[in-house]
Amino acid sequence: MTETININLGKRSYPIYVGEHLLTNGDLFEKHISNKKVAIVTNETISPLYLQKISKTFKDINKEIIPIILPDGEAFKNFETLNLIYDELLKNRANRQISLVALGGGVVGDITGFAAATFMRGVDFIQIPTTLLSQVDSSVGGKTGINHQLGKNMIGAFYQPKCVIADISLLATLPDNHLSAGLAEVIKYGLIRDFSFFEWLEKNINGIMKRDSKLLINAVICSCKNKADIVESDEFESNIRAILNLGHTFGHAIETATGYGKWLHGEAIGIGMVMAAHLSEQMGWLKKEEYQRIKSLIVSSNLPINPPEISKKDFLDLMQLDKKTKDDQINLVLQQGIGKAILTSDYDEEKLHNTLLKKSF
Question: Most CB atoms closer than 10 Å: which of 60, 100, 178, 183?
Answer without folding.
Answer: 100
